[in-house]
Amino acid sequence: MYWNNILYTSDEKPLEKLVNGYSMTSVFRKIAFIGDSLSSGEFEACDKDGNKSYHDMFDYSWGQYIARNNGLTAYNFSRGGMTAKEYLESFAENNGFWDKDKACQAYVIALGVNDIYNGGMKEIGSVDDVKNRNDSTFIGAYGEIIRRYKEISPDAKFFFITFPDEDDEAKKEQCEAVIKELYNLADYYSNSYVIDLYKYGPVYNKSFKDKYYLYGHMNPMGYILTAQLIDSYIDYIVRHHYNDFKNIAFVNSGL
After folding, report:
1. What is the pTM of this model?
2. Strand partners, 30
3. Spatial separation of the C-alpha atoms in residues 248 and 242, rounded to whole Å
4. Which candidate among 5, 122, 124, 228 keeps its CA 20 to 30 Å from the CA of 84?
């Protein structure tokens, strides 16, 4: 056993090592996954007449795969079509997601597709909107979601998932602008980290989607692959920031 490869990993890049079995994500006993259809295990069905229907099947969500793999409790704070603005203004409240009894040790946030690409808020905004409590932009609303959960669980860890690289020039500028602001959010808020799938993950091109997509959403294999990527990335972050996670067992314990 080459222990140096496990214990001393300063030169390692994210996703160089994909987890197999229990990962360092297991340090969390309760995680919330905040997002849209791709966080909900949504499947897109199409009948013989070409009519589409959409179905959130949480057991197939990548968050629940991570939970089963690591023996932890995962909440799907998600729904197909979700935006940061709707989550903040009504969805979380209506579903009890601000409730103290659902406080988690970690929150993984994967929002933005519907805000930026699918006719939602459109204006990206910046961390200045967060500082000024302006939730009319995507980053402003996103930052307000974080603030609300920090009130509920002050010492929790936060992971912000970027868009993947879709090899689409039309989306490139907006995508990179959002990613820049997610890094700024991670600098602004304590206990926050970026899961940068755009830089370190696979390219979601035609070849990828032929294997892992069903129409406009993922198929079961795609959600399993996503679970492995997110799990491996969180494992990487924990292993490279051991001091940040030494007291994670005490979060929300009263100790």
Report:
1. 0.94
2. 73
3. 10
4. 228
Q: Taking 90 as the threshold, does the pLDDT of residue 142 lie above it?
A: yes
Residue 1 has pLDDT above 70, yes or no: no
Residue boundaries of the structural domains of the chain:
22-250
Fold of the domain built from segment(s) 22-250:
Rossmann fold (3.40.50)
CA 123 to the chain's CA centroid: 20
Structure tokens at 31: 């995680």
Q: pLDDT grade, residue 87 (50/70/90)?
A: very high
2 pLDDT above the threshold of 70: no
The one-letter amino acid at 121: M
- Classify strands 42-46 and 52-56 as parallel, antiparallel or unpaired: antiparallel
- Look at residue 120 in the predicted model and tell me its pLDDT: 60
Could you give the CA distance from residue 79 to residue 93 in angstroms, rounded to a whole number? 14
- Alpha carbons 238 and 247: distance in angstroms, whole number: 12
- Between the two ends of the chain, the Cα-to-Cα distance in Å is 36
Q: Residue 232 pLDDT > 80, yes or no?
A: yes
Query: Tell me, what's the pLDDT at 40?
Result: 95
